[in-house]
Amino acid sequence: MVWNKPLPSMDPDIEPFWKALKRHEFNLYHCKKCGAWYFPVACCRNHDNEPLFGNMEWAKASGKGKVFAFNIHHRAFHPGFEKDVPYVYAMIKLEEGPMIGSNVVGCDPYQVKIDMPVEIVFQDITEQFTLPQFRPVAQ
Predict the structure, then answer these.
(1) Where are the domains of the chain?
(2) Which of 15, 30, 70, 95 measures 20 to 30 Å from 60, CA to CA?
């Protein structure tokens, strides 16, 4: 498969997230002191932080959540997406608390609803990148 769509941007702060996805693991930034979860990288808002993010770590998360908001794209804003329309882009409220933007796949776009339970699926797109996408949880 040839990937002809834009690639995610990578910098040292988010690199551990992408490396975990490549292993088909879903990690979020986690406070070792109070247990709060964050995405993307952030200092904990619940207390003073240790220097250089010392109280923070990347930790395995559930990969489950609910659709918080979404839209159905009927027009491709990049030539690589022309064969994908219509497709759903959604904000997923993760069980751990943070939100992440991604596609909802594995169902008719018109069946997506607010508060619909979803779980992560991993789409390997290149040697370097695996995308986190979400599908409806079978009920």
Answers:
(1) 15-136
(2) 70
